[in-house]
Amino acid sequence: MPWPSRKRDKGAVADKKEPDAKIAKTEEETSDKEEEKSAKPPAGSSKSGWKNWKKAKESESGGEESKITYCHWLLKSEPESRLEKGVDVKFSVDDLKAQPNQTTCWDGVRNYQARNFLRAMKLGQQAFFYHSNCKEPGIVAIVKIVKEAYPDHTQFDQKDPHYDSTSRKENPKWSMVDVQFVRMTKRFIPLSEIKAHHLAHKADGGPLKDMMLFTRQRLSIQPLTKEQFDFVLSLEEEKPH
């Protein structure tokens, strides 16, 4: 690819709203330096929105509860320039759209749990493209998996900021997938709005109550259930708060 390691977990930094997060290189320390702690939910409650959405879904499915499985994803990437070991790790949705066939490898992930999520991705599954470590983080687009996990070439490149001297070509530690742009969301869905629903769902049992964006916010690769994905996607039809 013409750029090195734009998407990653190793050395991840916090969004600007969380200045106390630390840069780290191990699984325990790894941080996308997410901004959830400081993102303020908009005024009002999302309970009615969740109940109306649930009623519509139950009507469509005959009242059956959807099976809890992870079949969608949320991928974080930084839309603003930031140097890591002298390399700019910026990669926005516009950068993705500018690539040949609007496709890129999702390289540079250096967290074991995030890597395992990459390895669990299946061809054709969809994911939210999430802008992180910026003035207003949130979901901007939808992408799909077009190539399942294979060895991440950056782990063997000594000039790459995510080079791993302990990884061996006969037994690579790190993996990546290829993703392709599908479409922009109908509107930007900010973290603050998603958090408002998450807090309401914690109280009334909605689908976002255990969303990893808030329970494991430091991970740059996060799984979503179908119910979580569908609910967040439904927000693009609503007027922003």
Automatic annotation (TrEMBL):
Biased composition (Low complexity): 40-51
Disordered: annotated segments: 1-61
Principal location listed in the UniProt entry: nucleus
Species of origin: Furnarius figulus
Record's protein name: Thymocyte nuclear protein 1
Taxonomic path: Eukaryota, Metazoa, Chordata, Craniata, Vertebrata
Keywords (A to Z) from UniProt: Nucleus, Phosphoprotein
Superkingdom of the source species: Eukaryota
Record carries keyword Nucleus: yes
GO cellular component, one term: nucleus
Comp. bias regions, Basic and acidic residues: 10-39
InterPro entries the UniProt entry points to: 5hmC_binding, EVE_domain, PUA-like_sf, THYN1-like_EVE
Domain (EVE): residue spans on this chain: 72-234
Subcellular localization: Nucleus
One of the Pfam families matching this protein, by short name: EVE
Described purpose of this protein according to its UniProt entry: Specifically binds 5-hydroxymethylcytosine (5hmC), suggesting that it acts as a specific reader of 5hmC.
